[in-house]
């Protein structure tokens, strides 16, 4: 069965606030994005890897690859104005029609190989495999009247990536006008009336988003080496 992974890194990292977008910041010995590509390559060396970055960053990425001697084979595709558009561009770059595709945030370098494997297995079985984790904190729902209500947290999950799909189905799902609530790929798939299948993610699989995440990322990297 054909298998690909689209690593989306077409964002600007405004919440991180660094002059260089967060996907290119170094943790340990190399940029975040290189750690992410490496884990997918280690998972399966025959996986087609598609990296989506802003077109303006293409030459910068070439410089980074030279500087860090980065050898993981991958195809580079231009990002879009939103994550939805970046994923859509990535889907368009796959040159086969039947198989499975994992969609993963470039800024989640600590996904485990086990989670990637489970997401592919579930997508092969049911059409989709979405990594999620339980909540650790209590949660409250806010209302427009400035009130808040208790919610039963066992009915909620935090959604991660990878989100892995049957390629034909996810291509069909992305062939729609973008809606504001399409913050992830599961939501786009679900918009077709199809139910998504959840799998257990790993707690370390954080999305590097704000400056304090960089310190935690360094800690996680060191921990993974011990
Ligand atoms: N036009 C975009 C926007 C986001 N992403 C990617 O989607 C992932 C999750 O997005 P997020 O963490 O929100 O990244 P940014 O959009 O870069 O961050 P911010 O919202 O703080 O600007 C990231 O790997 C990001 O690069 C993308 O490929 N194309
Ligand atoms: C896809 C995602 O990482 C799942 O948690 C998340 O929805 C991306 O959201 P963002 O608005 O791009 O930060």
TrEMBL record:
Entries under InterPro entries matching the protein: IspD, IspD/TarI, IspD/TarI_cytidylyltransf_bact, Nucleotide-diphossugar_trans
Catalysed reaction equations from the record: 2-C-methyl-D-erythritol 4-phosphate + CTP + H(+) = 4-CDP-2-C-methyl-D-erythritol + diphosphate
Q: Name one GO molecular function term.
A: 2-C-methyl-D-erythritol 4-phosphate cytidylyltransferase activity
**Keyword set, alphabetical order:** Isoprene biosynthesis, Nucleotidyltransferase, Transferase
Site residues, Positions MEP for the nucleophilic attack: 153, 207
Keyword Nuclease listed? The answer is no
Pfam families linked to this entry: IspD (PF01128)
Report if keyword Transferase is assigned: yes
> What EC number(s) does its UniProt record assign?
2.7.7.60
Q: Name the family the entry cites.
A: Belongs to the IspD/TarI cytidylyltransferase family. IspD subfamily.
Q: What does this protein do?
A: Catalyzes the formation of 4-diphosphocytidyl-2-C-methyl-D-erythritol from CTP and 2-C-methyl-D-erythritol 4-phosphate (MEP).
**This chain belongs to which protein, by name?**
2-C-methyl-D-erythritol 4-phosphate cytidylyltransferase
- Organism of this sequence: Echinicola arenosa
């Amino acid at each position: 069965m054909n298998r690909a992974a689209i690593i989306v890194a077409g964002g600007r990292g405004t919440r991180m606030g660094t002059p260089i977008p967060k996907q290119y910041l170094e943790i340990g010995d190399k940029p975040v994005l290189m750690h992410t590509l490496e884990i997918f390559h280690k998972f399966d060396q025959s996986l087609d890897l598609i990296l989506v970055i802003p077109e303006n960053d293409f030459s910068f990425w070439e410089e980074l690859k030279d500087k860090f001697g980065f050898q993981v084979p991958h195809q580079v595709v231009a990002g879009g104005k939103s994550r939805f558009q970046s994923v859509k561009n990535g889907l368009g770059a796959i040159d086969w029609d039947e198989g499975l595709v994992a969609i993963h945030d470039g800024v989640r370098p600590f996904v485990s190989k086990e989670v990637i494997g489970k997401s592919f297995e579930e997508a092969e079985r049911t059409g989709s495999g979405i990594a999620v984790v339980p909540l650790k904190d209590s949660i409250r729902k806010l209302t427009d009247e400035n009130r808040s209500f208790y919610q039963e947290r066992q009915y909620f999950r935090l959604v991660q990536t990878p989100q892995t799909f049957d390629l034909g189905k996810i291509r069909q799902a992305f062939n729609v006008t973008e809606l504001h609530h399409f913050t992830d790929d599961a939501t786009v798939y679900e918009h077709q009336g199809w139910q998504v299948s959840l799998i257990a993610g790993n707690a370390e699989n954080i999305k590097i988003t704000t400056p304090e995440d960089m310190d935690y990322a360094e800690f996680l990297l060191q921990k993974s080496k011990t």
